[in-house]
Design a protein that fits this description.
alpha/beta; seven-stranded mixed β-sheet; four-stranded mixed β-sheet; 15 strands; binds pyridoxal-5'-phosphate
């Protein structure tokens, strides 16, 4: 264990968290991971919202192993490969209406870049609009459309032709008790951004249906309908970044289904293959037809093993109706967390959709972000054997995004550990 931690220090570039959690994960199954000393942890973060069907889901593993015995790689864009075809067909069946053609990549940022490129080619326009607080990846192009300075620091200047509109973060808006008003205001702001900040040549608006890294910001019910009206008036495409929200996480197969709006392009990754590296963007045939020979390729994209795993994963999500379970257990978890909120002034808001839940910690009524407290809660939970994430534009949101197979007993365990962690950090510092 110490050997691995030392090798990380000596040889691995770790460029995100201040310090990588001081444990070595050795194996995993279902909702649990075990460290190299054999200690079990309840995983309420799913490897950043990835293993929706649970760690090492037997059906996914079986499909991947069978594929590995046959074919691992030959480049799925030079030759026909069955799992790629089968998966693309499956995605066409589950994706929002009309989106039937898919390009496969390896990770979220790569798929976002591909979708942006396709939007530019299809529309012949070159500008983009994204949201304040958004996150779309770590490449230069995706950072250019990411609306969060903490992710962009020291990397500028970024791509020209990108404008940002306010996100419907009702809790920190002027209308915390009237989220629908907040949504209408944001739609009006989008219209203003188009009119006053762009040249009018906007290819696409890109948004996460629930902002993940931005702090689990759930747009009000009317938000995407209001936004879509504005986009349609200006003839702007809508790219839904469902990298984090897709595949059952929010209680529906895709989060936009909660809003009754259909995008022009759907971008997915994370939960698509239960941990195997794969991403996708999916669109209507007439948009997809814009790509001509030579326009786009990914050597590893559509890897046969990842595609076979994804196919088994999606089938499992459907057979077990995991989106519905996520909806039910997400409500259960949020209700338990709101019970704790009644006795903890540190909790500003509990919010979420399905099993994508954020608890925003604040120090006072001015909503001063309690960011060091959020990190302390995460660390205290780790000591109690529960893994959670921390995020948000201000770094003060504790994130619960467990595998969708989590049981209510396990949720009780996580929530009770959370209450203990809060109580620990709420103690006045001893002098
Ligand atoms: N889009 C969203 C909404 C994300 O949450 C992420 C990653 O957290 C990405 C894109 C980038 O995905 P990846 O890290 O696989 O490149």
């Amino acid at each position: 264990m110490i050997d691995t931690i030392q090798k990380y220090k000596d040889y691995v570039m770790t460029g995100f968290v201040k310090s990588v959690a001081p444990i070595v994960i050795d194996r995993a199954s279902g909702t649990s991971v075990w460290d190299a000393n054999g200690r079990e942890y309840l995983d309420c973060f799913s490897g950043i919202s990835v293993v929706n069907a649970g760690h090492n889901s037997p059906r996914v593993i079986a499909a991947a192993k069978a594929q590995m015995d046959k074919l691992i790689h030959c480049c799925s864009y030079l030759y026909h490969v069955q799992p790629v075809a089968d998966l693309a067909e499956k995605i066409a069946q589950v994706a929002p209406r009309g989106l039937t053609k898919t390009f496969f990549g390896n990770g979220g940022a790569e798929a976002i870049e591909g979708a942006m490129k396709l939007a530019r080619l299809y529309t012949g326009k070159h500008e983009f609009i994204a949201l304040h607080g958004s996150f779309h990846g770590r490449t230069w192009g995706t950072l250019s459309i990411t609306g969060n300075q903490s992710r962009k620091k020291r990397g500028g200047p970024y791509a020209p032709g990108v404008s940002f509109a306010p996100s419907p973060y009702a809790y920190r808006s002027l209308w915390p008790n009237d989220p629908e008003h907040c949504a209408r205001h944001c739609a009006k702001c989008l219209d203003d951004v188009i009119r006053f900040e762009t040249s009018g040549d906007v290819a696409a608006f890109i948004a996460e249906p629930v902002l993940g890294e931005g702090g689990i910001v759930v747009p009000p019910k009317n938000y995407f309908c209001e936004i879509k009206k504005v986009l349609d008036q200006h003839g702007i495409l809508f790219i839904a970044d469902e990298v984090q929200t897709g595949f059952g996480r929010t209680g529906k197969m895709f989060a936009l289904e909660h809003y009754g709006v259909e995008p022009d392009m759907l971008v997915t990754a994370k939960g698509i293959a239960d941990g195997f590296p794969l991403s996708a963007f999916t669109t209507r045939p007439e948009i997809a037809a814009t790509y001509k020979p030579g326009d786009h390729l990914s050597t590893f994209g559509g890897n046969p093993v990842s595609c076979a795993a994804a196919l088994a994963n999606i089938q499992f999500l459907q057979d077990e109706d995991l989106p519905a379970r996520a909806a039910e257990n997400g409500e259960y978890a949020m209700q338990k967390l709101r019970e704790i909120q009644k006795h903890s002034p540190l909790i500003g808001e509990v919010r979420g959709l399905g099993l994508m839940i954020g608890v925003e910690l604040v120090r006072d009524e001015k909503l001063t972000p309690a960011n060091s407290e959020a990190e302390a809660v995460r660390d205290a939970l780790l000591r109690q054997g529960v893994l959670v994430g921390v995020g948000g534009v201000y770094g003060n949101v504790v994130r619960f995004q467990p595998p969708l197979i989590i049981t209510q007993e396990q949720i009780d365990r996580a929530v009770s550990a959370f209450a203990t962690a809060l109580a620990t950090i709420a103690q006045p510092a001893s002098v």
